[in-house]
Amino acid sequence: MKATEVLAALKAGRSVAGDCRRPDVEPLPGIPAYRVTTAASQTDRTVLFFHGGGFTSGSTADSLDLCARIADAASAEVVSVDYRLAPEHPFPAAVEDCVAAYRHLLREGYPPERVVPAGISAGGTLVLSALLAGESLGLPVPAAAICLSPVVEMLFLGDSIALNRRTDWLAPDDLAEMREDYLPGGDPADPLASPLYADLGGLPSLMVQAGTGEVLIDGICAFVSTARLQGVPVAFDCVEGMFHCWQAFAAVLPEGAAAIERVGAFVRRHVPDEG
Question: Which end of the chain is more exposed for a tag (fewer CB within 10 A), N or C?
Fold first, then answer.
């Protein structure tokens, strides 16, 4: 499908189905997470994955095709976390669950230099939030981290929120509802909820992937600039015309499949083959 066709379907509320990959899935004892592997997976390279869904929906089951494609592209195992969801479990419950998942891997003997946290949309936010929370707890820094179309600030101040309404399926009303559910009565400028306003200097090398058609693109660009100014190496993969979370539609969208291949290359570059 063409990107314009996928976007039109999403705007109309229609499902977009394709030839989804079917990985092996194994529950991890002790935490709400699953090990997702394919024939290409190497067990000494791990992507710790946080799904999207606006902090209120989503699961590993909904993200199996994306997890499988990341596993294939990165030659890695993927550990996907089913963190608690708002509004039943508002901020910071999801952050706590993501930090707990990383701590679990460390306790199980996963070397931090062989782990790359990655997430899409709200999951991309949680990657940053978990890294910041982990830093305050003295946890070791992972090899690198990946944020796909992340929500980096909850004030939604960028001009693109209004200007890109025609080029994205995510609407300003959706963002306001998400904030209300995730941060009921909370401070939208809290650095753990809005990483744009955090001290970012302790973060590992980042890959940030976004599309110029996203309503969130102004905030994402501001985050990339801020992180770089604070000394964080950031590979910014900004794709012309793409909408929010286009990577999740890799089964039907060539641009999505290509984006995941670049994600895999980033993981392999920062977690090279051993020996």
Answer: C
89 an active-site residue? no
User: What pTM was estimated for this model as a whole?
Assistant: 0.98
Active-site option among 63, 214, 255, 270: 214
pLDDT at 275 over 80: no
Contact indicator for 260, 69 with CB cutoff of 8 Å: yes
Q: What is the pLDDT of residues 258-271, one digit of tens each?
A: 999 999 999 999 99
Q: Is 180 a catalytic residue?
A: no
Select which of 41, 63, 80, 121 is catalytic. 121
CATH 3.10.20.30 fits 3-270, yes or no: no
* Section 95-110 average pLDDT: 97
Is residue 214 annotated as a catalytic residue, yes or no? yes
